[in-house]
């Protein structure tokens, strides 16, 4: 029986969207469950309820709420909260209200609504919503892990390029009564597709999400009520390799290219339990066991996320997931080893097909093949419609760019083959797409067609986690807009149940260092809260007993190097979640593991009060020559010990704050003491008071202590001039790697040089984001010189070079930033910069409270600024000018009761506002 950790609280967010108007006759909009494709399978504790209020009125805020949870829709309709009635709670809290009702039962479906009263009078009930509980007790699992604990000769698993065919499993079951509700709880490793009576269940692809498989695996809950019927039914499951079965086989040795060992967890395996509730209230179960049948002789003859999928339509198992299929030749499945001690409901969104593209061009090569241009570097696969003779093979090879007009550039894929093969069955037009692979590509070479194809016969399917796009940015500068679009495509292309580094080559892993600050910028564009909260669990699962954290999580590549900067993501990301989403639980939940890592690094690597352990330096400093990967110029390279010790100081201050929020005064003093000691030792070792610079005076060497508050106060201004001077010697172009780049744009603006930040953002010559755009890039490169560097490391789809650019776009240009105490945008702080050379900026963010928008324009000597603030929040706006010159909707704000104003300086006025849309105008300074 599977052992599961009990009493672990999962703060699943249930979101009610309500429409509130300024008048008492309030109306209700839709109610949904935030983040989850379907609110099924909550199993780790009590849910937390959230709702969103929308209103066109001004200064709308909640005065009280009342939550009802009922066991049936009828009871809820009668306003009978037989499971929980919170009573009227006089509070403006609308996020993360903890359930406090009767114990919630496994498999049970619940119905809920919330009543809100606002300061405008009246009350409104949200439209009812539902959720259901999963398996809260491990004893409820009656299913066994099954599969084939071995492989065929044809699978060639002893080869470096492992080939393993998919497993097909099926079982028939008779249901004796009419079905009221049926839910499949399924964990298929590494990847699965579930079929019920011949039809796929659910819309997820590449399911389930990734995990540290020897510590934890997840199951999905899928509603299959509409697919089951009284009488005979059939369940079918196809299992692919995913990241569970070895991606490469080096016979226990490290990858010869990277020197890093790679994980192999075992052969694909299945755990599934279908919970059936009949209309008379009785129940039945269908579980995975040795009553199932299995074969590995189906049409998916090979699958690998690196290499692609091979499908032989001549081997189609027609009707295999339907009742009555003749499966006598299939085998009895093996009982498989239990993968992990914890099996739990997937906490993050599933991967789905989010968009489809048709090729923008179709070109015939001299050799007779066809090259498709999708018009955009994308992540997913191509669905095809083809015909031919039985046994003809259609081959699709994928690449991000072309070598010549007739050939793909695949050198940067390293040893990923990125090739799909479809063997035609010979039955007229045939439709096919892969199940268990994905590719990063813009171009596709198609071989094997004996006719002239049409572009409509190829559909690019873009896949990533089913998270909402919550923000967008535009400006009067076309380069900045193009960079933002490229960032958007890059970020979503690298969401694969974990934040990956790249989607195309033989890597596709979760490097922690890439997301230390990028996760923050991403949160303005995508609702990535559950993805990163889940990734924190992966990091905690990957942590060794001694406290060590790897640089890559999940640890499909085993890289425990005890670096400081990369694992610091474990300390910084909870702060991002706290600030951007009001998540008060992630840092609480993972605090013990975070503290364990800090103590391990301090106790193991402390050298005279400094933790100097570093392995990567300021990764990807722009090299002096386009053909280099790493700079050979020592004046550009920052000492690794400085990076490590500066980041350890920053982490110590964050831990001090977490301890303060947890009311752990002992740890407040502990981390405060460490930070003070590190700061003193750091300045003693690296700061030259005569030259007023750190170490060898690189921008990163000076920028980190300046950003982290380590610089002697009287020397800050002079130190910043060192940064400005260094930029000038580089013709005001990027000179930092990813570590310094995480603070570059904000560091310039915080010290009064937004003009320099704007120049970095709009440059079009090497090295710059605009240079990538000018070279035709539609995503962000791994290297600033990704068009010319060695193919060992020139991915065309990497987000790490974004640094803090998106944060700067939003917080500094658009002026959309959360208050540090009233987090999650409960209070919005809006202090936009209006730099010369930029005429217009427009941005929005759909926060957990609602849509925040900021749009300003310079015209006719004035700045017009339109601001939208959602209900139940407030905002503080810093506007250039004084109250006697600032107008809102044409009226001077001075003396208006709608606003609270205060003087920030001789040239800036602070205006405090509530919800609503406002139009300010002021003379352009």
From TrEMBL:
Identify the residues that the record assigns to the Alpha-L-rhamnosidase C-terminal domain, covering every copy: 820-888
Among SUPFAM superfamilies, the record links this protein to: Six-hairpin glycosidases (SSF48208)
Organism of origin: Flavihumibacter petaseus NBRC 106054
Reaction(s) catalysed by this chain's protein? Hydrolysis of terminal non-reducing alpha-L-rhamnose residues in alpha-L-rhamnosides
| Gene3D superfamilies cross-referenced by the UniProt entry | 1.50.10.10, Galactose-binding domain-like (2.60.120.260), Immunoglobulins (2.60.40.10), Maltose phosphorylase, domain 3 (2.60.420.10)
Pfam assignment, any one: Bac_rhamnosid_C
Q: What is this protein called?
A: alpha-L-rhamnosidase
Residue stretches making up the Alpha-L-rhamnosidase six-hairpin glycosidase domain: 469-812
Write out the GO biological process terms.
carbohydrate metabolic process
């Amino acid at each position: 029986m599977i052992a599961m950790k009990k009493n672990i609280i999962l703060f699943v967010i249930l979101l009610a969207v309500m429409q509130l108007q300024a008048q008492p006759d309030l109306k209700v909009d839709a109610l949904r469950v935030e983040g989850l494709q379907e609110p099924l399978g909550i199993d780790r504790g009590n849910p937390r309820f959230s709702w969103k209020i929308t209103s066109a009125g001004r200064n709308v805020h909640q005065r009280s709420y009342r939550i009802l949870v009922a066991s049936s829709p009828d009871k809820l309709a009668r306003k009978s909260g037989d499971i929980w009635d919170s009573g009227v709670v006089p509070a403006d809290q609308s996020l993360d209200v903890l359930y406090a009702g009767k114990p919630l039962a496994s498999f049970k479906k619940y119905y809920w609504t919330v009543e809100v009263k606002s300061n405008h009078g009246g009350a409104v009930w949200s439209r009812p919503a539902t959720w259901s509980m999963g398996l809260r007790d491990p004893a409820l699992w009656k299913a066994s892990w099954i599969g084939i604990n071995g492989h065929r000769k044809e699978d060639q698993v002893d080869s470096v390029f492992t080939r393993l065919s998919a497993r097909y499993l099926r079982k028939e079951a008779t249901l004796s009564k009419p079905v009221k509700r049926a839910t499949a709880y399924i964990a298929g490793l590494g990847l699965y597709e579930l079929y019920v009576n011949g039809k796929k269940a659910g819309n997820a692809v590449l399911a389930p999400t990734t995990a540290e498989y020897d510590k934890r695996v997840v199951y999905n809950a899928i509603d299959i009520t509409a697919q089951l019927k009284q009488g005979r039914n059939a369940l079918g499951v196809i299992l692919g390799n995913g990241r569970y079965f070895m991606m490469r086989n080096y016979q226990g040795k490290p990858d010869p290219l990277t020197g890093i060992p790679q994980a192999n967890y075992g052969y694909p395996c299945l755990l599934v339990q279908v919970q059936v509730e009949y209309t008379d209230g009785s129940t039945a179960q269908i579980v995975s066991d040795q009553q199932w049948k299995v074969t590995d002789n189906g049409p998916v003859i090979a699958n690998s996320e690196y290499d692609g999928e091979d499908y032989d339509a001549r081997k189609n198992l027609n009707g295999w997931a339907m009742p009555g299929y003749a499966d006598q030749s299939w085998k009895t499945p093996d009982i498989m080893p239990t993968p992990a001690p914890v099996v739990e409901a997937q906490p993050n969104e599933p991967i789905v097909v989010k968009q489809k593209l048709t090729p923008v061009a179709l070109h015939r090569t001299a050799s007779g093949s066809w090259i498709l241009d999708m018009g955009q570097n994308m992540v997913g696969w191509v669905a095809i419609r083809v015909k031919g003779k039985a046994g003809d093979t259609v081959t699709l090879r994928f690449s991000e760019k072309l070598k010549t007009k007739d050939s793909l550039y695949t050198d940067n894929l390293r040893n990923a083959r990125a090739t799909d093969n479809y063997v035609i069955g010979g039955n007229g037009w045939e439709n096919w797409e892969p199940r268990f692979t994905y590719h990063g590509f813009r171009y596709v070479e198609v071989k094997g067609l004996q006719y002239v194809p049409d572009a409509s016969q190829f559909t690019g399917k873009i896949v990533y986690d089913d998270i909402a796009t919550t923000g967008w940015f535009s400006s009067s500068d076309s380069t900045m807009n193009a960079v933002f679009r490229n960032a958007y495509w890059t970020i979503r292309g690298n969401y694969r149940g974990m934040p990956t580094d790249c989607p195309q080559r033989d890597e596709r892993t979760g490097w922690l260092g890439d997301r230390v600050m990028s996760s923050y910028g991403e949160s303005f564009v995508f609702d990535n809260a559950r993805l990163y909260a889940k990734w924190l669990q992966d990091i905690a699962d990957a942590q060794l007993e001694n406290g060590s954290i790897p640089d890559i999580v999940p640890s499909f590549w085993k890289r425990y190097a005890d670096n400081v900067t990369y694992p610091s993501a474990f300390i910084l990301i909870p702060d991002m979640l706290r600030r951007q989403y009001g998540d008060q639980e992630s840092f609480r939940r993972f605090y013990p593991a975070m503290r364990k890592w800090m103590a391990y690094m301090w106790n193991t690597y402390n050298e005279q009060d400094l933790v100097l352990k570093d392995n990567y330096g300021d990764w990807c400093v722009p090299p002096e020559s386009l053909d280099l990967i790493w700079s050979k110029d020592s004046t550009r390279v920052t000492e690794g010990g400085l990076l490590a010790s500066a980041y350890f100081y920053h982490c110590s201050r964050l831990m001090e704050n977490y301890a303060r929020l947890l009311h752990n005064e002992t740890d407040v003093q502990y981390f405060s003491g460490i930070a003070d000691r590190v700061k003193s030792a750091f300045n003693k070792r690296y700061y030259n008071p005569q030259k007023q610079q750190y170490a060898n005076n690189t921008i990163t060497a000076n920028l980190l202590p300046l950003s982290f508050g380590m610089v002697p106060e009287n020397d800050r201004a002079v130190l910043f001039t060192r940064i400005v001077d260094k930029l000038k010697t580089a013709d005001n172009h990027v000179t930092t790697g990813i570590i310094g780049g995480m603070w570059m744009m904000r560091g310039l603006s915080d010290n009064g040089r937004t003009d320099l930040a704007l120049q970095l953002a709009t440059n079009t010559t090497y090295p710059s984001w605009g240079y990538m755009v000018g070279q035709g890039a539609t995503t962000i490169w791994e290297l600033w010189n990704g068009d010319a560097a060695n193919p060992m490391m020139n991915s065309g789809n990497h987000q790490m070079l974004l640094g803090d650019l998106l944060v700067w776009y939003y917080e500094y240009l658009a002026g959309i930033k959360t208050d540090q105490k009233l987090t999650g945008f409960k209070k919005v702080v809006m202090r936009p910069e209006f730099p010369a050379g930029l005429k217009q900026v427009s941005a929005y963010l759909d926060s957990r409270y609602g849509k925040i928008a900021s749009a300003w324009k310079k015209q006719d000597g004035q700045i017009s600024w339109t601001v939208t603030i959602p209900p139940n929040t407030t905002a503080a706006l810093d506007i250039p000018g004084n109250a006697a010159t600032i107008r809102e909707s044409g009226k001077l704000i001075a003396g208006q009761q709608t606003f609270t104003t205060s003087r920030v300086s001789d040239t800036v006025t602070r205006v405090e506002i509530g919800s609503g849309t406002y139009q300010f105008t002021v003379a352009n300074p």
